[in-house]
């Protein structure tokens, strides 16, 4: 082959091998006529890299179509000198070589492999190839110091050369050897990355499910650090503080509606028989044998909802605490304080698993009668409050199920120590003053602590107004609790304080606690408050002044970040991310932007990520740390879940976010009259009176098959959801009986895929997202073994070693 013109005259150097493998230039001939090519220890040859590149490209099997010959010069300059006159830097040449290697690796996938040539003088060709790669220009090497190959790359090339005596020709090398990256390194790092191609077994794309698996393992590891096995050892439920009520005593606290509205359930993939159901107050439907969903009627509109935390791997029954208004049309002014009867209900949903639900109906375990007005929010202590129901306690103490804090409309926060239902039933020896016991266990309770704003000198709670939201400190020892009030105040209490200025014992053996820190967070009411689960120094608040503020509790004179966007209703702060997922009211949102957003706290500077569009007010949102998923319920009666991407990376590059969300169910209000069209909104009565609405209409729940997400975009629930996102009708001149007010994901590993929701109709439903929950199965055996070790054979204080779980009734 004719050599291209060199940039400078050739200087003596190491001899080069010719096309036939013989050495050119000086050298000693051996007996067989071959010329030995000894390695010269001095300076190497002056052959330019561009010249080497020409030789490499001339040996390429089939160059890509439309590709110009690299190194050619259109203006007459040499191949080593560009149009500007400056010699090419080695970075450009290395990049060109890298692109050529990529082209050679991709060609076998598009073209049939070229037949391998018989290697001739393989070792000589290998030496020639290596000399071409190592030859340098006559340029100053100091300018190319940044582009010198690393010792790791050179050592890999040395080992590759020494380990191969006879190699295939360069034309067939990409087909026969392992794919190589830049610098000759094998592609082992690419194979170690998580596989994000193709579909997962549940039907979602692997790129969607990869963050779910990551968040599950991260949640498990961080909970081992942040959660505790036992906290608040002095706050134990005592039997004589619980007084069971008779029928007449319990009547003022019971919800007014004794019958639920008519409703039907249509499940995707199952032929509907058109049956209509009407439940009595505090009764439930039998769980569906295939879909496992549970439905029960609580008596009024649900405005507070919370799962009781249980240890990972406990396989214990799951409990949900809730509170509803006493009547369907009850309204409350937010400006003043309100007191009156309220009922806190604790429902037993049974032992919930991903593969199978409870075989029994949901039942009301017991209820607490209170006189502090309606309940706007309630939260359980995140960990350390649960003990096995068989924990041996000396009478009158009872085994503890959890610690529940409730925010009331009279401005106070009340903390209850809840016993296991079995222990309460066993200890109900209190004499009833009037008549017989109510058929459901309804009790008056002396609380553990009452939290109020103010101080010992000025304890007037009316200054701050009603308490709308609260959040329990997520890290052990969970001794701080924060709450937001009507006037924009946020108060933080220390539940374990011994200070006489903050803790005042009461005559009934309860405690009255005053906050150790108060600050004005917003100009108007604090609608939602959430603690950061990864670091308890940070807090986020959402107010009616349309602002979202992030706070560092160590410097409260100004927020870390303040964002004014729209009227937010509730926030969810997932464990692994530096931001929150926000649900919003649509009253201030521009057209097309109403719905659910992820908003960065400000450290990473990401723009807001649009999770899902909604056409009506989104009343509630909940996030699952195990599933990396959020769920939201809105005024139109649709419960939508969305799998989040990895939000530690800028989410603006996420494509087709519509593939990540799916409906759990949709509630529609339809007329009962067979004369009018079934789906006609015009046939519904235009009234806000529940009795008239219940007589002339019924609710239809359309459930999605959540066991698998195969072919999800083409399924009927997804098409219906997309139509609803584009065009949804809101009829504000009637009672929104289908509206969903509260949505909550289970925080427990055993029931991680379960989602409970309730709204205006008073019908609470629990669904299993079995297609997503299958990801955390590998974590259960280890957690179950740890639970058996902690609660089985090993005693712990204050409970004796008898910790086997009681069989359910």
Automatic annotation (TrEMBL):
Pfam families: WD40. InterPro entries: GTF3C_component, WD40/YVTN_repeat-like_dom_sf, WD40_repeat_CS, WD40_repeat_dom_sf, WD40_rpt. Residues 1-92, 106-202 are annotated as: Disordered. Residues 155-164 have a biased composition (Acidic residues). The keyword rRNA-binding does not apply. Residues 31-40 have a biased composition (Low complexity). WD repeats lie at residues 519-554. The keyword Membrane does not apply. SUPFAM superfamilies: WD40 repeat-like (SSF50978). It is found in: Nucleus. GO terms for cellular component: nucleoplasm; transcription factor TFIIIC complex. One of its GO terms (molecular function) is DNA binding. Keywords: Nucleus, Phosphoprotein, Repeat, Transcription, WD repeat. PROSITE patterns: WD_REPEATS_1, WD_REPEATS_2, WD_REPEATS_REGION. Part of the TFIIIC subcomplex TFIIIC2, consisting of six subunits, GTF3C1, GTF3C2, GTF3C3, GTF3C4, GTF3C5 and GTF3C6. Required for RNA polymerase III-mediated transcription. Component of TFIIIC that initiates transcription complex assembly on tRNA and is required for transcription of 5S rRNA and other stable nuclear and cytoplasmic RNAs. May play a direct role in stabilizing interactions of TFIIIC2 with TFIIIC1. This is General transcription factor 3C polypeptide 2.
